[in-house]
Amino acid sequence: MAVSILSGCVRETRSEEETEAVGEELGRALAGETNAFIALSGELGAGKTSFVRGMARVLSPGSVVRSPTYTVVNEYNRGKVPVYHFDLYRITDADDLWSIGYHEYLGAGICVAEWAERAGDELPTPRLDVTISKTGDSSRTVTVTPVA
């Protein structure tokens, strides 16, 4: 994955728009990739979907990005490579991942998973772990860590 410029990246944001801008930055870094996995973690309301909205603005322009809480995966196909946006909040075990076709998406485009920690040992490598932490009412810390 050619995103070494973001290795160990930590960004402070003070608004939803700034969180989206960090997502855009990652989207630009991923623009030449044909597949990648981004594992998002952060508490409820941390800004995970906002981050994905920024990524999709670059990777799938014009796509409407909403949390796939009930659909589990949204597909954005307006760019050169498809973007698959997962919400794994309701996943309880590896069988749930099989039932939603999770493994079929891996390697087929850019996969971004909210609540990625719920996938446990099923998270692929290499990947980028992105943690979004609330540091105040509207402030966040976004940390990007590559996992080999």
CATH topology: Rossmann fold
Overall number of strands = 7
Return Rg in Å. 14 Å
Largest sheet: 7 strands, mixed
CATH superfamily: P-loop containing nucleotide triphosphate hydrolases
**Overall shape:** globular
For the record, the CATH architecture stands as 3-Layer(aba) Sandwich
Proportion of helical residues: 25-40%
The largest beta-sheet arranges its strands as 1-7-6-2-5-4-3
> What gap, in angstroms, lies between the N and C termini?
10 Å
CATH class: Alpha Beta
What is the H/E string?
Answer: EHEHEEHHEEE
Number of domain modules: 1
User: Which regions have little confidence, pLDDT < 50, spanning 5+ residues?
Assistant: none
User: Would you tell me the overall average pLDDT?
Assistant: 92
Structural class: alpha/beta
Structure description:
The protein is of the alpha/beta class and 148 residues long. It has a single domain (14-140), classed as 3-Layer(aba) Sandwich (Rossmann fold), CATH 3.40.50.300. Helix content is 25%, strand content 27%. The chain has helices at 16-30, 48-59, 94-99, 102-105; strands at residues 10-13, 36-41, 73-76, 83-87, 110-114, 127-134, 140-147. The protein has a 7-stranded mixed beta sheet, with helices on one face. A hairpin with a 5-residue loop joins strand 6 and strand 7. The longest helix is centred in the N-terminal third of the chain and has 15 residues, at 16-30. The model has no long low-confidence stretch (mean pLDDT 92).
